[in-house]
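Quick one, tokens below:
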């Protein structure tokens, strides 16, 4: 029997779903290859073929260092998963999950059947929403742009003691603003956790990456900076990067709750994204961090 690998092709798996589920017709995956299902018992995997020259070992490790290739692959992967999740329950698989042929896919489905079925039961009828909260600029923490020299004398025109006092005062203002914003972000997360079935906290996003992603038109990215980074707190530091698992029928209520929180928290800029496939909830509760 000829397998995809014999023809220089491998099987790329996007997600697991129930064997009776019907994904959208005409789905195209990586390299615009047609997407189809490979079934084993009560489960099926959403797959397409990909070139072995790109995705076989060790070539794929080298490709992962190519940001353009990685972005293109991630976009195609996410498009297939999200379009399917809009219609049926799915368990998203990790980026670049590749098998040699359909028999290998069936073997993985059989070996992990119990775990996959538990996850699908838990995620069925639910989607992921993302909420990010950023600190807004504080008028009293720094002078308006272009007026710093007028608002404050140059360091050389004041005594060293006065200069240090001013710097200490400014730092206290920034620290206080940061603490207040952090507290508001925690309150937002606590409220949304109660409104969702489950929640996950991701590391705050690097604002430089967020700007680069916005400028390039890229989809949601997971660039991270160390939590607590102080740089430019008043310029929009990411204080909350949360994911929330919500039932489809409760999506409108959840979105309204986010809007209410945004209106009650003027010190924060709150963004709602989604719905997405439940990427952040592909582990069982006892496996969750």
């Amino acid at each position: 029997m000829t397998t995809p690998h014999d023809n220089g092709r491998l099987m790329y798996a996007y997600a697991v779903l129930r064997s009776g589920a019907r994904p959208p017709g005409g789905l195209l995956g990586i390299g615009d290859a047609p997407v189809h299902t490979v079934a084993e018992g009560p489960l099926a995997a959403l797959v397409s073929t990909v070139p072995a020259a790109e995705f076989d070992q060790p070539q794929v490790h080298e490709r992962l260092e190519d940001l353009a290739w990685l972005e293109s692959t991630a976009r195609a992967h996410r498009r297939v998963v999200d379009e399917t999740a809009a219609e049926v329950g799915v368990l998203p698989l990790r980026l670049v999950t590749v098998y040699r042929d359909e028999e290998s896919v069936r073997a993985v489905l059989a070996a992990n059947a119990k775990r996959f079925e538990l996850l699908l039961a838990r995620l069925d009828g639910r989607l992921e929403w993302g909420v990010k909260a950023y600190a807004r600029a504080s008028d009293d923490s720094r002078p308006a742009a272009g007026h710093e020299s007028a608002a404050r004398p140059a360091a050389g025109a004041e005594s060293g003691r006065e200069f240090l006092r001013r710097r200490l005062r400014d730092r206290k203002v920034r620290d206080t603003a940061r603490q207040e914003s952090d507290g508001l972000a925690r309150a937002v997360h606590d409220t949304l956790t109660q409104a969702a079935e489950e929640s996950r906290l991701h590391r705050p996003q690097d604002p430089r990456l967020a700007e680069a992603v916005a400028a390039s038109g890229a989809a949601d990215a997971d660039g991270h900076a160390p939590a607590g980074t102080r740089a430019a707190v008043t310029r929009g530091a990411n204080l909350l990067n949360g994911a929330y698992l919500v039932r489809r029928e409760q999506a409108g209520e959840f979105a309204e709750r986010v809007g209410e929180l945004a209106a009650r928290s003027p010190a924060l800029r709150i963004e709602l994204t989604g719905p997405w496939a439940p990427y952040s909830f592909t582990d069982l509760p006892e496996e969750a961090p």
